[in-house]
Write a structure and sequence with these properties.
Blueprint: H1 10-14, E1 21-22, E2 28-33, E3 36-41, E4 47-49, E5 63-69, E6 73-79, E7 86-93, E8 97-99, E9 105-108, E10 113-116, E11 130-133, E12 140-146, E13 152-155, E14 158-161, E15 166-168, E16 172-176, E17 182-187, E18 198-202, E19 208-211, E20 216-218, E21 239-243, E22 250-251, E23 257-261, E24 267-271, E25 280-281, E26 285-294, E27 297-307, H2 316-341, H3 348-372, H4 377-410, H5 413-421, H6 423-449, H7 480-515, H8 520-539, H9 547-555, H10 562-575, H11 578-586, H12 590-599, H13 605-614, H14 620-627
Length: 629
C-alpha cells in the first residue's frame, strides 16, 4: 500500500488521547543493530513527527514508547528499566498522516507548492502523530479544494469525499491552504483527466525541484508558478500536474524558439527568424524551478522550461563496433574457460594471459553496454569510471606480459634459475601492479574530477557529456583525455616496443649462433628459438600495436571528411576483434584441442597421447626449459 495513513483509532491523531511518547529524538528512528535497538537519523526526510514528548529511551525508565522502524512501520516498544531491554510490543503498520506539506507549512493552491506558516494544520493534525509528506510516487496529481473539514469524513485508513461520494483508500494527502481551506491531493490513474482541466508537465516528482543541475531534490516550496513567462496563456487558470521526469533533458532557449502553452495544455515551439515558412513542433517539455550556485554566487533561481532533446543519429563506428565488441567478449570468455579447464596451461604466462583476458573482457563489455544503453547521471558516471579503469587494467597487463617475455628471453641463465623458483612471488607482484596501479591512477582522476584543483583545460569530466573520459571533441579546449589516458598509455606502449625489439634482437642472435651448429641438439635449440620468435610475433598483435591509431585519433578528428571516417571505422573494427585474435593465437592449437578431448573423454587415450607427443606446442615454461637443456 503506497499511501496508508493515520488512523487506527481516531483518538490517536485527532485528539490528545494518545499518551504515548516518542522513543527517539526529532528526526530519528529506531534501528536494530547487533540484536540491540538504537536510535539513528531518519534516512527518509519525508517522514516527520509532531510529538511533544521525545527521547523516552534516554530517560532509562520503564514504560512504552512509539517509534518508526525500518522507515515503513510504527511500532510500540516496551522498555524495562531493570534489565535495560527494549522489545517490540505491538505493530501499528504504516501509521502515518499523509500531509501534503512538511510540518509548519501550508499548501499554496496557486503554485501547487508549500509555504512556511507559523501555525500548523488546525482541527486535523494534532500532537503526537507521525507524518509522511507529499506524493513523490504519483505521476499525475489533481487537487480538490474544500471549504472545511465537514466535506470529508475519515474512516480508519479511508477518506470519504462526501459531495462526490468517492472513497480514497490510498494515493492521497491532506493539508490546509494558505487561505484556511482544506486541500485533498490525489493520484490519478491516467491522463484522461486532461480533457477536463489543463495539464502541466513538471520535471521533478512532487515536492522536488532542480538543485545545481538536473538533480531533483526535496525543496517543497517550489511547485509550478506559470507567471514566469508570457508564453503560457491564462496562467491563473486551474491545472493539474503531470510529473514527467524524463532524461536526457536540456534547457529550452526562448531566444531560439517561439513557444506557447495554450489553455488546453498543448505545448508548441517554432524557430524564430526563419526565412522559410515557420514550422511548429510539438515537443516533450516540462516546467521546473532551477537553483544553481557556483562558488557561493547564485547563478539561477527561477522557473525554466526544459525539453527532451532530439537524439542524434548513432555514428556508423558505434553501430558496427558495438556488435564486434560482443563477439570479442564471447571469444574472451571461451579463452578464459579453456584456461580454467586445463590446469597444464596455467603456468606463469598462462595466468598472466588469464588476467589480461579478464580485464579486456570487462573493458569491452562496459563499452558495449554504454553503446547499447543510455546511462544517465550516477549510473553514467559509474560506467565511465569502470570503462576507464578496465582500459588501464587491460593495457597494464599487456605491459606486464611484455616485461615477462623480455625477462624470459633476455635474462642470463644464472638469473633464470632463481626466477624460476620465485614464480609464485613474481605472479603476486604482477597482480599487485596489474590491478593495483590502475586503481590508484583512476582514484586520482576521480578525486580531480570531483574537485576544482585542476584548471579547466585539464579538469577530467566523466559522466557529464558521455559515459567516459571526455575529449576535446566533446568539450573544446579540454585536454584531459590526452593528459590522463593517452599519454600514460603511450608511455607504456613505447616501453613495450623497446622491450619487444630487444627480445627480437636476442632471438636473432641466438638463431645466428645455432645456425653454425650441425648436431641434433643444436638444431633442436634452433627450432625452439624459431617457435619463440613466432610466439612473440603473434603476441605483437595484442600488445598495443593498434594503440598507435588511438593515439593519432586523440589529436586528429577522423570525422572531418568521409575518407578518414571510413578509415577510422575499419581500423576500430579490426581493433575490437582482440578477443578473436587471442582465441586464435592461444586456443586454436592441436594440442589444446586434444587436451580438451581428453578432458571430456572424447578421444581414446592412446590417440590423444600420440597427438600430444607429435603436436608442437610452446609455452613460456617450455621455452625456458629448452633454453637450458
Amino acid at each position: 500500500m503506497k499511501f496508508p495513513f493515520f488512523l487506527i483509532t481516531l483518538s490517536i491523531v485527532l485528539v490528545r488521547g494518545n499518551i504515548q511518547q516518542k522513543c527517539c529524538g526529532i528526526g530519528e528512528q529506531i534501528v536494530e543493530k547487533e540484536f540491540r535497538f538504537i536510535c539513528e537519523k531518519l534516512k527518509n526526510g519525508r517522514l516527520q513527527d509532531n510529538f511533544e514528548d521525545r527521547d523516552f529511551l534516554k530517560r532509562n525508565v520503564t514504560g512504552t514508547c512509539l517509534e518508526i522502524f525500518s522507515e515503513e512501520n510504527v511500532i510500540l516498544f516496551g522498555v524495562d528499566e531493570v534489565t535495560g531491554t527494549i522489545e517490540k510490543q505491538e505493530e501499528y503498520g504504516e501509521f502515518f498522516f499523509p500531509k501534503c506539506c512538511p510540518l509548519n507549512y501550508h499548501y499554496n493552491k496557486t503554485t501547487h507548492g508549500c509555504a512556511k506558516v507559523v501555525s500548523d494544520f488546525p482541527n486535523i493534525l494534532k500532537i503526537d502523530s507521525f507524518v509522511r509528506v507529499g506524493l513523490p510516487e504519483c505521476e499525475i496529481i489533481s487537487d480538490k479544494i474544500f471549504e472545511s473539514m465537514q466535506a470529508v469524513q475519515v474512516n480508519g485508513k479511508e477518506l470519504l469525499l462526501k459531495e462526490e461520494k468517492k472513497t480514497l483508500k490510498e494515493g492521497y494527502c491532506m493539508d490546509s491552504t494558505l487561505d484556511g481551506k482544506l486541500v485533498v491531493r490525489m493520484c490519478e490513474e491516467d491522463t484522461s483527466i486532461c480533457s477536463q482541466i489543463r495539464c502541466i508537465s513538471k520535471c521533478c516528482p512532487d515536492g522536488q525541484s532542480f538543485i545545481n543541475g538536473s538533480f531533483c531534490r526535496d525543496t517543497y516550496t517550489h511547485g509550478v508558478d506559470l507567471h514566469f513567462t508570457k508564453a503560457i496563456l491564462e496562467p491563473d487558470d486551474p491545472f493539474i500536474l503531470i510529473h514527467n521526469n524524463f532524461k536526457p533533458i536540456q534547457l529550452l532557449s526562448e531566444r531560439k524558439y517561439e513557444i506557447q502553452l495554450d489553455r488546453s495544455g498543448v505545448f508548441s515551439a517554432s524557430y524564430r527568424n526563419s526565412s522559410s515558412q515557420s514550422k511548429t513542433y510539438n515537443i516533450t517539455y516540462c516546467v521546473e524551478h532551477a537553483f544553481k550556485e557556483i562558488n557561493g554566487k547564485v547563478k539561477i533561481n527561477a522557473y525554466r522550461i526544459f525539453v527532451k532533446p532530439k537524439q542524434p543519429p548513432i555514428p556508423t563506428k558505434i553501430l558496427i563496433t558495438r556488435y564486434i565488441k560482443i563477439v570479442s567478449c564471447i571469444f574472451l570468455l571461451l579463452t578464459i574457460a579453456v584456461y580454467l579447464l586445463l590446469p597444464n596451461m596455467r603456468n606463469l604466462f598462462g595466468k598472466m594471459l588469464l588476467n589480461y583476458c579478464v580485464s579486456t573482457f570487462i573493458f569491452f563489455a562496459s563499452l558495449a553496454l554504454i553503446q547499447f544503453y543510455q546511462f544517465r547521471d550516477t549510473s553514467c558516471e559509474f560506467m565511465g569510471f569502470l570503462s576507464l579503469l578496465s582500459s588501464f587494467w587491460s593495457f597494464t597487463w599487456l605491459h606486464l606480459m611484455c616485461i615477462d617475455i623480455w625477462f624470459s628471453f633476455g635474462r642470463p641463465r644464472m638469473l633464470y634459475a632463481s626466477l624460476q623458483k620465485d614464480e609464485r612471488k613474481r605472479l603476486v607482484q604482477y597482480i599487485w601492479i596489474g590491478w593495483g596501479f590502475p586503481i590508484l591512477w583512476v582514484t586520482i582522476i576521480a578525486l580531480l574530477s570531483n574537485t576544482n584543483i585542476m584548471p579547466e583545460p585539464l579538469h577530467p569530466f566523466i559522466g557529464k557529456g558521455k559515459c567516459f573520459l571526455e575529449n576535446s571533441e566533446g568539450r573544446p579546449g579540454n585536454y584531459s583525455y590526452i593528459f590522463y589516458l593517452t599519454l600514460p598509455l603511450l608511455v607504456q606502449q613505447t616501453f613495450n616496443i623497446v622491450l619487444f625489439v630487444k627480445a627480437i634482437l636476442y632471438c636473432l642472435r641466438i638463431k645466428a649462433e645455432i645456425g653454425r651448429m650441425n648436431d641434433y641438439e643444436k638444431k633442436t635449440k634452433m627450432k625452439s628459438c624459431k617457435e619463440r620468435l613466432s610466439l612473440i610475433m603473434k603476441l605483437a598483435i595484442i600488445m598495443g600495436v593498434f594503440f598507435i591509431f588511438e593515439t593519432i585519433s586523440s589529436f586528429y578528428d577522423f570525422r572531418k571528411n568521409v575518407y578518414t571516417e571510413y578509415i577510422e571505422v575499419v581500423w576500430d573494427s579490426i581493433n575490437c576483434f582482440q578477443g578473436v585474435y587471442i582465441f586464435i593465437i592461444f586456443i586454436c592449437k592441436k594440442k589444446v584441442f586434444y587436451n580438451i578431448c581428453e578432458k571430456f573423454k572424447i578421444l581414446k587415450s592412446g590417440i590423444s597421447t600420440v597427438a600430444l607427443n607429435t603436436t608442437p606446442h610452446i609455452s613460456m615454461h617450455n621455452i625456458n626449459e629448452s633454453e637450458n637443456t
